[in-house]
Write a structure and sequence with these properties.
Elements: H1 12-23, H2 30-43, E1 47-51, H3 54-64, E2 71-75, H4 81-88, E3 92-96, H5 107-113, E4 118-124, H6 133-143, E5 146-150, E6 158-159, E7 162-163, E8 170-174, E9 187-191, H7 194-203, H8 212-215, H9 238-249, H10 251-269, E10 275-276, E11 284-285, E12 291-295, H11 298-307, H12 333-338, E13 342-345, H13 353-367
Helix pairs in contact: 1-9, 2-9, 3-4, 10-13
Length: 369
């Protein structure tokens, strides 16, 4: 079977893992700090906090801005933890519709949803294709709102030369197994706000004022610490960070390969009238996490490709249609119409020409039957 995603390694991950394992320090420690510094520099942010997931990153970002009892404008077309994070903080998710072309949150619709209770906007760079950040940041500034970039799909992508995740007040990244940069599981939260950064380091480690590595960094172990607030067990560890450092070294190359195969799909599928795909706008330099097409007969095509040995996905079932979000549900005409047409094609750095051709030839074969 050709999978939808497959992690890529060139052996550097094993080399870096051996270093950590032999060091005897496997928890939150020097490799995590090294990864945080290098990742922050790569993205172009002042501070980075290594975490165990992007879900944790979104949770802590929203906790820093205290959204309890306030509204957060957010897309429904995303993985459900984007909006779970709002509920974790006692916030009120206000679902916003998307643009039909690239499936990102629609800035025009954002403005219509702002009330006295609105405190933040979450933007999801769907598939690694940038939202219209100038327009969104203008709206936020005019209305005194925070912006959180959910860049789970967008590691290495850009908007007008700026790395995605560096533009809003926070940038949240996922390093889950199939993401552009993978540590198996993990995440990172970026910000330029030093006060938030200092608080985040405590929040990720159950509210403890000084982590274990910091307390043992000298010639003796300082056992005492204070607990300043109710925090969470969300920190990254050095095993994950070692993999992350190896992945970061080749991230740009892996994204270049993703763009190559995405462009190949565009070129080869262009003549099929029943298919469309997200446009690459002038302000984008996409990370190309996934390649999602809109098509007629979505489910029939999905079953046809499976019989050919090709796995596909559906990203996503709209969050506002889940039972638990019924009380927050509202009409989202584009989201509700378009999700039924979406299918995610295989895309990963180790993809071969033979695999890409099989996908394309199979799709062409389906629409000529």
């Amino acid at each position: 079977m050709i999978p939808v995603y497959r992690p890529y390694t060139d052996g550097k991950e094993i080399e870096y893992l051996k270093e950590v394992i032999n060091s005897g320090w496997w928890g939150l420690g020097p490799k995590t700090k090294e990864f945080e510094k290098k990742f922050a520099k790569y993205i172009g942010s002042e501070h980075a906090v290594g975490l165990n997931s992007a879900t944790a990153a979104l949770h802590l970002a929203l906790k820093c801005i205290e959204v309890e009892g306030f509204e957060v404008i957010t897309p429904s077309m995303t993985f459900v933890t984007t909006n779970h994070a709002v509920l974790y903080n006692g916030g009120i998710p206000v679902f916003c519709d998307i643009t039909e072309d690239n499936l990102n949150i629609d800035p025009e619709k954002i403005e219509e949803l702002i009330t006295e209770k609105t405190k933040a906007i979450i933007v999801v760079h769907f598939g690694g294709y940038a939202c219209d950040m100038d327009r969104i940041m203008d709206i936020a500034k005019k209305n005194n709102l925070y912006v959180i970039e959910d860049a789970a799909h967008a590691c290495g992508g850009e908007y007008k030369g700026k790395k995605l995740g560096s533009i809003g007040d926070f940038g949240s990244f996922s390093f889950q197994a199939v993401k552009n940069l993978s540590t198996g599981d993990g995440g990172m939260l970026l910000t330029n706000n030093h006060e938030w950064f200092e608080r985040l380091k405590k929040l990720r480690w159950v509210g403890i004022s000084k982590d274990t590595f910091e307390r043992g960094a000298g010639n003796s172990y300082d056992w005492f610490y204070d607990v300043t607030e109710l925090g969470f067990k969300y920190h990254m560890n050095d095993i994950s960070a070692a993999i992350g450092l190896a992945q970061l070294e080749k991230l740009d190359w892996m994204n270049d390969v993703r763009r190559k195969w995405s462009n190949y799909y565009r070129k080869e599928l262009r003549g099929i009238s029943q298919i469309s795909y997200p446009p690459q706008k002038d302000y984008m330099f996409p990370a190309c996490h996934n390649f999602v097409i809109k098509t007629t007969k979505r489910d029939e095509l999905k079953n046809f490709l499976m019989k050919k040995g090709i796995t596909t996905g559906v990203h996503y079932y709209p969050n506002h249609l889940y039972d638990m979000y019924e009380k927050y549900s509202r009409k989202l005409p584009i989201t509700e119409s378009i999700w039924k047409k979406l299918i995610t094609l295989p895309l990963f750095p180790g993809m071969t020409q033979q695999e890409a051709n099989l996908v394309i030839d199979s799709i062409k074969g389906f629409y000529t039957i």
